[in-house]
Amino acid sequence: MNHLEFYIGKERLNQIKTYDNLYLKTKILVDLLFAEKKDKAGKPYLGHLYRVSEKMTTLDGKVAGLLHDVVEDIKTPDFPELDVTFDDLRDIGIPEEIIEALQLVTKTPPTHPLSKEEKLNYYYQEIDTIIESKNLLAIELKTADMSDNYNPERLNGLPEEKREWFTKKYSEPLKKLKLVKERMI
Hints:
By secondary structure, this protein is mainly α.
């Protein structure tokens, strides 16, 4: 069973599978999955997905921008066996190149609780893994995602402590990613 069926229903899932237009297929899917979700500032989460998508330069990038949080964020804590997977995305026709980029940018949760400093180091290691992959789509996607998360307009909607945390988390890795991206283009 495709786990997306649990979230959007079998009929809608089958309909989405029939669409040839990859962007339209993805747009409809994320609109359904994230319709009720809010970001950390209480704003519709879909805004973040669309802003990331708009920053991308290719069709594959725009699709990846819309999908970049699906596997990470579409979960049911009481039923982890229903979490959306990359195989679920493959099943609806998402190309392997996009899946590979999504796998690189999707956070893998640590196996044990971490201190704030350990969380930062863990995040920086994830950024290094993306860079070391030399996957331009993943690098561009992570850059677009972080740029939106680090946007002053979004940060201003957060409490001071969270703003400071995100500044510490994103500032240096974002500069690093932008530099790598410029060198690869």
